[in-house]
Amino acid sequence: xxxLGLLSGTSHDGIDVTVVDFEESxxxxxxxxxxxxxIPYAPDLRARLVAALPPAPTTLAxxxxxxxxxxxxxxxxxxxxxxxxxxxDAVCTHGQTVFHxxxxxxxxxxxxxxxxxxxxxxxxxxxxxxxRIRDITAGGHGAPLVxxxxxxLLRGRAGVSAAVxxxxxxxxxxxxxxxxxxxxxxxxxxxxxxVVVAEGLNERGYDADxxxxxxxxxxxxxxxxxxxxxxYALPAPKSTGKEHFHLDYVRAQVDRVRPGVAPAxxxxxxxxxxxxxxxxxVRAAGIGFLAVSGGGCxxxxxxxxxxDALPGVEVVLADELGAPVDSKEAILFALIGWCTMHGVAxxxxxxxxxxxxxxxxxxxxxxxxxRMPEPVEGVRSLTLR
Length: 385
Fold this sequence. Notes:
Layout: E1 2-8, E2 14-25, E3 28-40, H1 43-52, H2 60-85, E4 90-103, E5 106-113, H3 116-123, E6 127-129, H4 133-137, H5 147-154, E7 161-166, E8 169-176, E9 179-187, H6 190-198, H7 220-227, H8 247-257, H9 263-284, E10 289-293, H10 300-309, E11 314-317, H11 328-341, H12 349-352, E12 362-364, E13 381-384
Parallel strand pairs: 1-4, 3-13, 4-6, 7-10, 10-11
Antiparallel strand pairs: 1-2, 2-3, 4-5, 6-12, 7-8, 8-9
């Protein structure tokens, strides 16, 4: 069954897409990646999205318009990918997170926009969407959903192993003899990206190859203040997002500790914040093998910082697990789509904090009647190629 996975992450810089052809036999799932791509948002759409995100005020009219415009953008990307492989059987879209409601350590709601009906209309295949909320209704955080994929890829390794994704937010899945644990560590690229855009440091909107950070120095006083944020001390499971870690958050810390800090020093310090927070959690969990994915794995300062801080840990890219670093999360949503269509719960309670596994998402029919495949009892293994 060919499933097309779509998402835009917390870096909100564009739309990642992949098509995976899944075959299942007695709970063993094999996936062949047929297509993968990443399409930037149109600059004016990205600017409108950024302007509407917390803590900025917005209106329901703007949310409605963005829901349509992002849905249409997703639909065009999906249609091109579907055409490239000669058609797909279903689509799973994450959409674009615009708010993740966490209070007193519990996730109470989450909002992803990008109206799936536009995708169903354009592609003609059924669309699975709104995949996080069902986990939240079962007491989970709705994140990190990638823990389901990580557990399948890491299963069977000796000792304690982990996968970390360095997107806008860094999340980690830990697999060991005691089971699975997964949670959001804190910001990965979100704060650096926000500063790069606000200060107009380049036209890309992110620090490509750490070019900006390389020209700056770590401000240890500012870094200590950032590391003292209470979120890092919360026990897992936990989740966070740009509702907490955003540009005004950075500015408030700078005003307290280092008014007038040079932009390059600020970017360098925020880059070090990511390396330090990830490394300290890896050490605390006794991890011996770490697979890294997401945009942050292309930042040489972050990767070198992790390797320097974790001399006893084998630090590799997620490609070694069969999941390309830049399309791993799109593969995840293709996997969730396959699971939902086959009646399989695509969430691991230890990964999100949910009481029990749940089948995720809502299905929008495609061009014809909705015909579901025969249910599958579960997935015991996954091989990607």
